[in-house]
């Protein structure tokens, strides 16, 4: 099977422009339909309920809004911190990131938040000694360890294990990618009271399907064009060279180059959405995470959906919102993410190894952060 150069894309709008438009529609929805309410912080909000927004990740795109600047270093450091699976902010402080300082205790602890649930979800159960003996092989296979015994005759066994949800996602995408249970959950009901701030973004789901040849080539071409635009050599730019030299390309050649055969889409569910300050961070961070997971599992990222429960604008953000809505986002801002070729596993992620190219936003708009 072959295809010719007519497969090259001619999009009317860039993914960067689409991201700005999707985000602006969320703000407009809150401004037009928001209901005023008090909130936990005492600031006051205008809020609406259950709002979806949609972002394209094709071509390596990242949903970074450009009407105001999103600070990339805290964004990337925070993402690596999540991947480390800790609830202590020491790593953030070592890298000069203070976005979680207001919630941490004197030891820098936030409790079992985000990354702790992503990588080290605690599963503890108490069972009878008889059940333990009957199902010993099963409990060992699932990674449980005996923590101790309870009861007058020590007839109850305490078992525990830690579950790496994110590694499980990677494993399933590699071995059973059409599984409909590929999701991450940070809402651990048994540990919410131990968290300094319960998770706002709490469910992350991924969806994988095999691509037909034409779509596979289209998506690979889009990535190749972006990589070529930013002077980055990759399997996708190699594919473009062959496509240009030969006037067409076979599916076998795509296989030989290592061009992925599958698309990866993702969705984030967020219970509380600080639309002006938090949401730009959230959509960009999970967009980058989707791209990273796609890379290490043999996928090309396609689309990202954000779904907010309580979507609000704080009263003390109104001036900033007004300034943002009066701005015209730069049309040339079309950010993509590039990872080192050798990154192949979750623990390879290092914030300073991530390249964000093509991001040319307008200046940051400073507003107070509700704590």
Automatic annotation (TrEMBL):
Q: What family is reported?
A: Belongs to the thymidylate synthase family. Bacterial-type ThyA subfamily.
Q: Which residues form the Thymidylate synthase/dCMP hydroxymethylase domain?
A: 22-210, 263-371
Give its localization: Cytoplasm
Supply the alphabetized keyword list. Cytoplasm, Methyltransferase, Nucleotide biosynthesis, Transferase
Indicate the principal place this protein occupies in or around the cell.
cytoplasm
- Entry binding sites for (6R)-5,10-methylene-5,6,7,8-tetrahydrofolate: 71, 274, 370
- In which organism is this protein found? Citrobacter amalonaticus
Protein name, UniProt field = Thymidylate synthase
Give the reactions, separated by semicolons, that this protein catalyses: dUMP + (6R)-5,10-methylene-5,6,7,8-tetrahydrofolate = 7,8-dihydrofolate + dTMP
- The EC number of this protein is 2.1.1.45
Q: Which residues of the sequence carry a binding annotation for dUMP?
A: 40, 180-181, 271-274, 282, 312-314
> What job does the chain carry out?
Catalyzes the reductive methylation of 2'-deoxyuridine-5'-monophosphate (dUMP) to 2'-deoxythymidine-5'-monophosphate (dTMP) while utilizing 5,10-methylenetetrahydrofolate (mTHF) as the methyl donor and reductant in the reaction, yielding dihydrofolate (DHF) as a by-product. This enzymatic reaction provides an intracellular de novo source of dTMP, an essential precursor for DNA biosynthesis.
Gene name on record?
A: thyA
Pathways involved: Pyrimidine metabolism; dTTP biosynthesis
């Amino acid at each position: 099977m072959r295809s010719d150069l007519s497969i090259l894309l001619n999009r009317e709008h860039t993914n960067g422009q689409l991201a700005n438009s999707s985000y602006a529609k969320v703000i407009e929805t809150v401004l037009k339909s928001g209901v005023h309410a008090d909130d936990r912080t005492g600031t006051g909000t205008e809020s609406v309920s259950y709002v979806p927004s949609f972002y394209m990740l094709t071509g390596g795109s990242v949903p970074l809004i450009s009407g105001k600047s999103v600070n990339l270093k805290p964004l990337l450091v925070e993402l690596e911190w999540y991947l480390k699976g800790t609830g202590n902010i020491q790593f953030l402080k070592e890298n000069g990131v203070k976005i979680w300082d207001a919630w941490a205790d004197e030891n820098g602890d936030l409790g079992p938040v985000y990354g702790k649930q992503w990588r080290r979800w605690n599963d503890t159960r108490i069972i009878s000694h008889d059940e333990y003996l009957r199902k010993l092989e099963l409990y060992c296979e699932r990674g449980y360890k005996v923590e101790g015994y309870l009861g007058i005759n020590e007839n109850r066994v305490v078992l525990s294990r830690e579950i790496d949800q994110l590694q499980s996602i990677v494993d399933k995408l590699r071995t059973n990618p059409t599984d409909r249970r590929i999701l991450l959950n940070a809402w651990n009901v048994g540990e919410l009271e131990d968290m300094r701030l319960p998770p706002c973004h709490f469910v992350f789901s991924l969806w994988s399907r095999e691509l037909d040849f034409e779509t596979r080539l289209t998506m690979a071409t889009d990535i190749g064009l972006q990589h070529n635009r930013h002077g980055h050599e990759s399997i996708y730019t190699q594919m473009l060279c062959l496509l240009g030299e030969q006037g067409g390309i076979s599916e076998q050649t795509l296989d030989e180059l290592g061009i992925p055969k599958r698309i990866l889409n993702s969705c984030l569910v967020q219970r509380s959405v600080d639309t002006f300050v938090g949401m730009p961070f959230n959509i960009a961070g999970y967009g980058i995470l989707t791209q990273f997971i796609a890379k290490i599992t043999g996928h090309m990222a396609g689309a990202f959906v954000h779904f907010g429960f309580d979507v609000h604008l704080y009263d003390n953000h109104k001036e900033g919102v007004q300034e943002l809505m009066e701005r015209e986002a730069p049309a040339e801002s079309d950010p993509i993410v590039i990872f080192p070729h050798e990154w192949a596993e979750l623990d390879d992620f290092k914030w300073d190894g991530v390249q964000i190219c093509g991001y040319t936003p307008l200046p940051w708009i400073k507003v107070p952060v509700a704590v």
